[in-house]
Amino acid sequence: MRTTRExxxxxxNLMATISYSSREIDCKLVYAGPGLSGKTxxxxxxxxxxxxxxxxxxxxxxxxxxxxxxFDFLPINTGTIYGFKVxxxxxxxPGQAMYTDSRQLILQGVDGIIFVADSQRARMDxxxxxLRDLKENLRNTKRKGVSLVLQANKRDLPDxxxxxxxxxxxxxxxVPCIEAVAVEGTGVFETLRKASRIVxxxxxxxxxxxxxxxxG
Length: 216
Description:
about 220 residues, alpha/beta, globular
């Protein structure tokens, strides 16, 4: 258990936790999106592919018909920041509209969000409503500048929208987008790598600021 933790708020507005005792930086990635879009599938697949020595236990909290999943792990091949390892904490959030309080709680202190969109034509309205709710929750938590990656999931199904159309309808044309078939593991780690690299770059800036502040 890490006993010494110091939090530094910086101009990047990230809330990663720096543990000087264990030489680790903790950051939080949250999988958001409408119900049954594949958030849980992503998190479970990642957990199943990471060596047990590098990951924590997968914890599941029942929330009505959906579950909140979370675990932490030390990713490989991400390097270090000033000699500190980066530990990622992955969360999925319930997508149904009635669980907005749970989503808002989980989004506290988030560093990066992976929005899992359902590519099926019949689910576009659900995608739009979920993204609107996400933005509102972030406003309520006073989070700004959170890194965002879009995953267009269920690309193997019939009657799906083109990825470009999904991005346009969601107003996310400038956000990195990864196509995925999460049930097969396709695009799952590509999405995670994209999100974690963006967060790592911002963490590097944040940590540089924190070190200078600590020395000063």
